[in-house]
Each structure stands twice: as structure tokens, then as C-alpha cells.
Amino acid sequence: MQDTSKQYDAVIDTCKSLFINKMSDYGSAWRILRLPSLTDQIFIKAQRIRGLQQNDVQKVDEGQESEFIGIINYCVMALIQLEKGVVEQPDMSTKEATELYTEKVALTKQLMEDKNHDYGEAWRDMRVSSLTDLILQKLLRVKQIEDNKGKTLVSEGIDANYQDMINYAVFAMIHLNE
Questions:
Q1: Which residue pairs from 16-24 have beta carbons closer than 8 angstroms and sit at least 24 positions apart in sequence?
Q2: Which of 37, 58, 70, 115 is 20 to 30 Å from 162 by CA-CA measure?
Q3: SS3 80
Q4: Which residues make Cβ contacts (< 8 Å) with residue 76, sequence separation at least 6?
């Protein structure tokens, strides 16, 4: 499990670095995005990954890795939006956004470690394509929960689904880097 923790941190460091650089370029313009908009952005990324996995020809010179990074960062933004709410104008400094990013990822990593312990690192025997499909399934669940105004009867909430998508995307990145 120690390797998993280090590998997880390395993936997150890459994602967080891009997040911070984009905050420098664009500020917190993402703060105006409602959850369904963030969900749709994640969906676009996951669909592109699936297309890359299935198609023989790739017309845009960006691979799966950059899309998984996008999924991770959009999911973190969604978790922040769940806590802070949507705003009409960008309102967050890079410092505050980075602190919230770090907090959300720490909670998500803890969830991964707990599940990883119980499942015996089963993800290591999974294919990247299966992880992609699981992300797409989680996205469809989130869309349904959003359509239900955030209400569930017996299922996990939106936040748990975003956390699972982060963890699946991190696992996929670890696979792609091995």
C-alpha cells in the first residue's frame, strides 16, 4: 500500500500543479459553474477517453493522461462547489483554492486508502478501459441525482461519486505511468 500512496501523491501533484497554473492564468472563473456544468465537463473528458480507447485514429494530439487530469481537477472543483456554493463572479484567491483543493484531495485519498484496504488493491488487476467505464457509470449516476434535485433514497450522494471518480482516474493514471 505504501507504493500506492506515493503513486497517488505523484499523480495528484501533477494535477494540482496544473490547477494552480490555470488559476494563475484564469483566476477562479470556474466558481460560476453549476454542478451540472462541471458534471458535463467531466462527462466530455470521460467520453473522449473512451473514444481514444476504442478508435484506431486520433485526430487531436492529446492522450488519455491529460483527460484523466481534467477529470480529477473538475471533480475537485465540484467538491469545492458543493461546499462553497456557486457564485456570480470569481471570488477565490489561488491560495484559498489551493487550500480547498488540498483538503478535498486529502479526504478523497483517505477514502481510497480505506477502500483499498478492504478490496486488497483489486484496481491493480483492472484495465484502464474498465476504470473509464466506471467513471462514466458514476457520471450517469450523478446526472440522475442532479435530476432528482440531489435527493437519494438509499444511495451515496453526489460527493461520494465525485470522490470515486477522482480515485478511478488516479488509478488509471498510475496504470498509464507503469
A1: 16/98, 16/101, 16/102, 16/105, 18/69, 18/73, 19/73, 19/76, 19/97, 19/98, 19/101, 20/94, 20/98, 22/73, 23/94, 23/97, 23/98, 24/94
A2: 58
A3: helix
A4: 15, 19, 101, 104, 105, 166
Query: 121-170: per-residue pLDDT in tens?
Result: 999 999 999 999 999 999 999 999 999 988 888 888 999 999 999 999 99
Contact 74, 93 (CB under 8 A): no
With a threshold of 0.70, does the pTM exceed it?
A: yes
Question: Please, is 79 exposed, middle or buried when counting C-beta atoms within 10 Å of its C-beta (0-12, 13-18, 19+)?
Answer: buried
Arithmetic mean of pLDDT, 57-75:
89
Tell me how far apart the alpha carbons of residues 161 and 80 are, in angstroms, rounded to a whole number.
14
The closest alpha carbon to 163, from 91, 129, 128, 113, belongs to 113
